[in-house]
Amino acid sequence: MRCILVDRARARNRLKRRADGLRVDLGELAASPFAEDDERIERVDAALTRLEQIDRRAAGVVTMKFFLGLEEEEIASTLGVTPRTVRRDWAYAKAWLKAEIEEPTDGDVT
């Protein structure tokens, strides 16, 4: 499902590239798993690929929650962990992805 959504987003974005920066609101990350925001899907996918190299389970939680729309209990059952572990991985992954995806503003030091 992730590959299908990302490929579709990339194809549509080729036609409508924007020069301005895009901010991704991770607070809404799981609220709408099939959102029409193609650039958001592409940016999340790229960051998620980097997260997979660091923490495969946390990346799996994001994939199941964001791209498949699964609930915590379903994810926990699939991964063989507790719902509390899923919440912890989700919180970690959200913070990590937010830091990876957001572009620095004028006041940020890089």
If you consult CATH, what is the topology? Arc Repressor Mutant, subunit A
Largest sheet: none
The CATH homologous superfamily is called: Winged helix-like DNA-binding domain superfamily/Winged helix DNA-binding domain
Oligomer: single chain
Could you give the count of β-strands?
0
CATH architecture annotation: Orthogonal Bundle
**Helicity level:** 55-70%
Element-by-element helix/strand order: HHHHH
CATH class division: Mainly Alpha
**Number of distinct helices:** 5
> Into which percentage range does the β-strand content fall?
under 5%
Q: Structural class from helices and strands?
A: mainly alpha
Instruction: For the record, give the distance between the C-alpha atoms at the N and C termini, rounded to a whole number.
Output: 34 Å
Average pLDDT number? 76
Characterization of this structure:
- The chain has 110 residues and is mainly alpha-helical.
- The chain has a single domain (2-12, 36-101), classed as Arc Repressor Mutant, subunit A.
- It has 5 helices and no strands.
- It has helices spanning 2-15, 38-54, 56-67, 72-79, 83-101.
- The radius of gyration is 14 Å and the shape is globular.
